[in-house]
Amino acid sequence: MSAPSEKLGSAAKSLFTRKFGFTLASGAACLVIVCVMMIAQPPVIRRVDKIIYDSFLKGFLGGTPSEIPILIDIDEKSIAELGQWPWPRYRLAELLISLYENGIAAIGVDILMPEPDRTSPELWVKQISDDFGIRPDISGIPDELMNNDEYLASIMSQIPVVLSAFGVGEQVVGREGGYRPLNVTPYIAPNAGLQFSAISGFLPKFGGIQLPVPELAGAATYVGLMNAEGDEDSIFRRVQLFSVCGEDLVSGLALATLALGMGDSSVVVRMGPDGPYSVRVAGIETPVSSGGTMPVAFRGGRGSYHIYSAVDVLNGDVPPESFAGRIAFIGSTSVGLLDLRSTPFDATFPGLELHAAAVDTILSQRFIIEPQMRIGFEVIVTFITGLVAAVLFSTVRPHIALPIGIALAAAVWFAFRYEMVAGGVYITPLYSLVNMAMQAFSAFALRFWLEEREKRVLRRAFSNYVSPEIVGKIVESGSVNSLQGEQRNISVLFTDLRGFTSMTEKMAPTQVVAMLGSYFTPMTSIVRNSMGTLDKFVGDALMAFWNAPLNVPDHPVKAVLSLMEMHRALAKLNLDLESEFGFTLRMGGGIHTGPAHVGNMGTSELMDYTAIGDTVNTASRLEGMCPKYGVGSVISGDTAERCAGLGDGFVIKPLDLVRVKGRTSGIPIFTVLTPEEAGERKDELSLWGEAFDLYKSGDFLGAWKICGSLIRTNPDEKLYRIFAERTESMKTTPENWDGVFIYDSK
């Protein structure tokens, strides 16, 4: 080896070793710092995490709110017409009567009434007598209206009502008479070896309850706690569904009113070593935090639910059907009464509406879950993204690395956001993003320092053998790939899994990745073993093509046989999936043969060998036809024509003549059967061929009759039902009939 080569090799090896060591140390230091942040949770980190949560939550909006919860608002209009607050409690009784007579299912009163109503006639007379020594004549007032509290209690005893109470640190004295909290039963698995007293330590614990006056507390169906606390930033993102009072679980106002309205007299709280994890109410299993709170899936700002002015209800100005079967919360959204909360959507969100949002979240089952395994998952993602960022920013030129890093950060952001928006699972991307940013900063700073050292080493290594100009070019050199594509006739295959997203919503991300790996591994082998080119994976979809970059004889046949082999491989895989996950996968595949442009595409720095053109688009459209016709494979007429006389491993069955979105002309489409299956269904296929020929010729009645016969013998065959319905609706042959059915959607 020459002297320059030896020095170059030695210098490069030394520099690589140092650079790798520095990169590793820098990356590890950043990861340690981020892990300390995860453990210590400094206020600024918690605050930023809440901002991210709020941003994701806004993407969780959508859908129609439940019609069940409604609000009866003691608003400015009601106060202006009926007098200042607090009203005499007989008026509240009249409000309850109006709601009950119109079919309300349950009423939650978001008003704390710990003191007697001083506007009661008998109390007013006593006050006048004590102060002035005279006794006003009130003989015209009926006995039942002499005491407003007793009158309200008599009304409530006949109506499904939940009154508000307030949990306090000390036992409240002077409250004689009983009250009925909703029966909240803790459930702990018998083999868990846990005690309720230990687990309940995760929940808010009150020494006593500030109750309504005894007459009201005893008359209400239930009493629910109205305690509510926002997060550190005073923003309300969750509701307290239940708390501990003494040795009992006591429900919140929203939970108790929902249970009453849905006829559920007993609510079960499931508890584990880490505290409560779910509550079952009205047959719905609702996930909760260990502190007994439930994140609220807000529909937006104030006014998201039906709200009726109390005075309109009293005056009978609201249609009765607005109340039938509903759950009403009575309270006030008036600014003057100060029952306002800050939420991620509204700085002045009425506390009254918070109860409706909680009920809507449960009834709509739009739960936001913070899984217990999220910390471990966050650590793993933080480590992986940090490692990728460290390598990226340490080895790739900054003007290239920075856009890729931003794209990676965006991918992490949108992946976590998708989990929240699509599945209601919140896992914060904050630590991954912080780690990537720290890796980028440290890597760029380290690179600047190391590159200056590298340049000095290279200059010393080559200065005695080449000119300074050449040394400079060596130090600053770079390479550009010159690549081009070509037009080829190829067979393109698209596959996709049916209902994959809904099946994996309750699976951990790591399980989903492992399952996709077990699915893609045999599919990839099938493509490669048949001389195909695997183009890309898009989620659970796969794209492959044949006859590029190398010539592949009989490539349409190989593509069809590969798709059939994929279905056989999936059938074997489903045996394992059924035993492990309790479900199986269904796949559809589309194949089209035609010209396409294939080659390296992208930029000179970032390339991908792929195919583009109408042939690719058509293959994708054909894959989307599989569920429409209830088949696992759809191939085009071009593919079927090129397979004629070449493939003895399959039989082609006609499906339709269609014009898919993006094309101006119709194409015949087919599905494929094994020779064994075709032999068993020989008579059926013959009848179907006759029906299809009649349909194409415009004899819809004849085609309809045969399809009816096929349906009777093959009730599960979706294709025959499609044509029976289509021909039945087509009474006469359209003008210029060519047999083409047009699909306007993908």
Describe this structure in words.
It is a single chain. The protein has 746 residues and is α/β, with parallel strands linked by helices. It has 24 helices and 27 strands. Strands 19, 20, 21, 22, 23, 24, 25, 26 and 27 form a 9-stranded mixed beta sheet that branches. Helix 9 (253-261) crosses helix 11 (351-364), helix 12 packs antiparallel against helix 13 and helix 13 runs antiparallel to helix 14 (430-462). It is globular, with a radius of gyration of 36 Å. Residues 1-16, 173-177, 461-471 and 477-483 have low confidence and may be disordered.
Note the main attributes of this structure:
alpha/beta, nine-stranded mixed sheet, disordered N terminus, seven-stranded mixed sheet, globular, 27 strands, 746 residues
Question: β content, as a range?
Answer: 15-25%
Chain-averaged pLDDT = 82
State the share of residues found in helices, binned by percent.
40-55%
The N- and C-terminal alpha carbons lie at a distance of: 63 Å
Q: Round the Cα radius of gyration to an integer and report it.
A: 36 Å
Total strands: the figure is 27
Largest sheet: number of strands, sense, barrel closure: 9 strands, mixed
Which of globular, elongated, flat, extended, rod-shaped describes the shape?
Answer: globular
Q: What count of helical segments does DSSP give?
A: 24
Q: In terms of per-residue confidence, which ranges show pLDDT below 50 for 5 or more consecutive residues?
A: 1-16, 173-177, 461-471, 477-483
SS content category = alpha/beta
